[in-house]
Each structure stands twice: as structure tokens, then as C-alpha cells.
Amino acid sequence: MVAPKEALRVGLLGCGVVGSQVARLLVEQSEDLAARVGAPLELVGIAVRDTSKARDGVDPSLLTDDAHGLVARCDIVVEVLGGIEPARTLILESFAAGASVVTANKALLAQDGPTLYSAADAAGVDLYFEAAVAGAIPLVRPMRESLAGDRVTRVLGIVNGTTNYILDEMTTKGLAFDEVLRTAQELGYAEADPTADVEGHDAAAKAAILASLAFHTRVSLDDVACEGITKISADDVAWATETGHAIKLLAIAELTDAGVSARVHPALLPSRHPLAGVGGAFNAVFVEAEAAGPLMFYGQGAGGAPTASAVIGDVVSVARHRVLGGKGPDESSYASHPLAPADAAVTSYQFRLRVDDKPGVLARVAQVVAEHSVSIEAMRQQGTPAGGVANLVLTTHRAPEAALAATVAEIAGLDVVQEVTSVLRVEGA
Ligand SMILES: NC(=O)C1=CN([C@@H]2O[C@H](COP(=O)(O)OP(=O)(O)OC[C@H]3O[C@@H](n4cnc5c(N)ncnc54)[C@H](O)[C@@H]3O)[C@@H](O)[C@H]2O)C=CC1
Ligand SMILES: N[C@@H](CC=O)C(=O)O
Ligand code: NA
């Protein structure tokens, strides 16, 4: 008979939306997990701020306010505190103590990933982070492992559940931004500070991680051009529908002739595009690779249980390495691509203008567009009930961002143009 392997000690840092679900699943699935790993996983402690607070389904004797003491006595540490400190210090202490780490902390990885990778490497342990990008969706592992034999050229994704939920509810139910944000917070999708979601910072952190994985280079949060959804109005949503589009917050990572371009911004997607139909807090990511062609990953990108699923999958992987020996892949950052300037990105614009409703206006606007070597894909005019003023909606063909921005700036200065009411990029056309 084979002797049972010694239990692996798992320490959990944080018992919030994700942590509480990790604790539940570790206990509920302990027999299956032991069979899959080849050794039992023993939850030895949960670091929290307030040990006296009752937590559903959590054994109170596991709670501790000594996170530093906890990581010193673990084989595997799960970090679901969020934020930069003390998460970074605790992860580094875990490595120093010989523990592998599983984290969902995209903000920390996007800001200081290389420090963490080097420390894990020096200690000969694993750093896994499937939950950090697109929650439950297996995406990090396919990028790190399944696509390691291919050349990825582009990643285009909806990677923030909160903003997708907000935009979807605004579109389908006509609800107001603030009202929907509150519900997203109640459902556990939003970050502790939801500014990170609505201003695009959370998606930008994920874009940095995805670009690094896709192009085997280092892209950090500061390298990602970022624009959130706070300026999207009910009018933008209505016009998107009117012109056959859906508004989505997109994370885009591309390898272009000018280098790596990583950016996050709201964009119009034609309603036939598969990403246009991704509703609620769901995420979906397109990956284009030279040999594989297009791939699409879809699933729940936020919420306690879906995120915990990805965390526990990583725990099983790193635990198997402990049992069998060896470790998973290190950071792959051998390629030194330059960063493409933000205004070199090639995209299309749809912009709306309020113009004088009189002859010759369309021609003047079209002339400015042509002078910037931009071409018009569609133009639509609608008079206002009061008369004298018309709404003009122009969609361009693809052109460098710099040319498109200069076009809009010059049009805004025309005497027949009363206001540029909105400028949105169009992707996936
Ligand atoms: N909620 C979600 O849908 C997803 C969250 N994530 C990431 O997972 C991590 C955790 O997120 P949530 O569980 O949603 O956050 P949360 O705010 O619900 O939970 C974090 C918990 O950690 C505790 N905490 C913070 N600092 C602490 C400290 N120094 N000592 C002890 N406890 C401390 C907080 O009191 C809180 O209970 C974050 O990095 C987040 O970005 C990733 C994917 C999805
Ligand atoms: N706040 C994030 C949580 C997952 O990463 C989101 O809304 O997607
Ligand atoms: Na994931």
C-alpha cells in the first residue's frame, strides 16, 4: 500500500468576496482535491482584519490577524487581499519561506510583476494568477502554456465584469449609471474602490498582464493608455443602438510595426461581432495567433465563486508540483519589443456633431476629413424637432489615431459646428 502523502499547508490571506468562497470550496471539496493533488490540502489559517467578525461557513478557529506569522508556516499561500501593500510584502515573505503563491491581484502584478517573478524564481517556487485576468475563464494558462508554440498577434477582450454589467444594463434596461454601479457592487463584481473599474484601471492592469504574456515582454500598468466609461452617456448608448452597435469597454493588446500597443477604452462594436453579445458581468477575450488563427474565451470574469474556481485550480496545480517535484513556467520576458506610441494605434472613429442645419455644412465637414487623409465610412444626418440644428453622425474608416484626433479637433473649430457631442472608437468592423 502506498503511504498517504503529508498534508500541504494552505494559508489564505483575505476573506472577502473571493476569499470566503476559496475557504468554502477548499473545505467542501477537500476529498476531491486531495485525490487530484495526491496529498490532502489543509487550510491552516485565514488572515483577516477582524477575527471577531462571524463569517458564514468559516471555522472561526482558523481566523488570525497575524498574516506574517501565517505565511511563515505554509506550503501554499493564497493572496486575495487586493491592493499593493501589504499584499506585496506578504507574497515576498511567502517566497522567502519557501511557499508557492496563488494570487488574484492584477493591480499588484501589473505594477510590480517582475519583482514577484524574480523572487519566486530565486526561491524555486510557483507564482500562479489565473484569477487575476478574466476571473473564472482559463486564459492565463492557455496564454502561458497552450499557446507557447505560437505567435500571438492580437488580444481583444472584455475583461472587466463591472463595466460590462453597467453598459449592458444601461443598454437593455435604460438604467442610470450610478444605479447600476450600486448593484454591481452588491453583487461582488466591483473592486473595493469601484473607480478602478469605471475608470478602466482594472482592465488596464489585465491588459498589461495579457500583453506581457502574449508578446513575451514586460508591459506594466503605466504602459497602457487608459480611458474608462464614466463619460458614456445615455445618448451614446441610444446612438450606438441606433447605428447598429454595442458599446463595450475593450482591452486591446497588439503587436504592430511600431511595437506593442496596449490600451483600454470604450468602443463601438458592430452588433454582429461576437463580443457585442457578451452581456452581464461576463467576460470574453479574442486571441489571434499566427498558426492557431482566432480563439475565443468566454465566461464569468467576476464574482466570488467564479473567481474562487480559478484560484483553487491554481492551488491544485502548484500543489501537484509540490507532490511530484518541479515547478510551473517562469516569467517569459525574453522579447524586447518597443512600446508603440498611443497615437500610432489604428482605429476608426464615430463622432457626433451638432451643426447648423443649412446647405453646404456636410461638404465642409467632409472636406476637413479628406484633408487629413481619413475616409468616411458612413454619414447620417438628423434634424432636431426645433429646427435650425442637425445631429450629424460620422463613422470613419480605419486610420491612425493621431489623424483621427486631428480631424475631430479641426471640425470642432468650424463655425458651422456648434458642438462635438461625442467621439467613440469603432473596433471589430
Ligand atoms: N471580486 C471579484 O469579482 C474579483 C476579484 N479579484 C481580485 O481578488 C482580490 C480580492 O478581491 P475581493 O475578494 O473582491 O475583495 P474584498 O474587498 O471583498 O476582500 C478583500 C478582503 O481582504 C481584507 N484585507 C485587506 N487588507 C487586509 C490586511 N492587511 N489584513 C487582513 N485582511 C485584509 C479586507 O478586509 C477584505 O475582507 C483583489 O485583488 C481583486 O482584484 C479578481 C477577480 C475577480
Ligand atoms: N472588479 C473586477 C473583478 C474581476 O477582476 C471586474 O469587475 O471584472
Ligand atoms: Na482567468
UniProtKB/TrEMBL annotation:
Entry keywords, A to Z: Amino-acid biosynthesis, Methionine biosynthesis, NADP, Oxidoreductase, Sodium, Threonine biosynthesis
PROSITE patterns registered for this protein in UniProt: ACT, HOMOSER_DHGENASE
Binding, L-homoserine: E191
Annotated InterPro entries: ACT-like_dom_sf, ACT_dom, Asp/hSer_DH_NAD-bd, HDH, HDH_cat, HDH_CS, NAD(P)-bd_dom_sf
Keyword Oxidoreductase set for record: yes
The ACT domain, residue ranges: 350-425
Residues annotated as binding NADP(+): L13, G14, C15, G16, V17, V18, G19, S20
Molecular-function GO term, any one: homoserine dehydrogenase activity
Family recorded in the similarity comment: Belongs to the homoserine dehydrogenase family.
Protein name, as recorded: Homoserine dehydrogenase
Taxonomic lineage of the native organism: Bacteria, Bacillati, Actinomycetota, Actinomycetes, Micrococcales
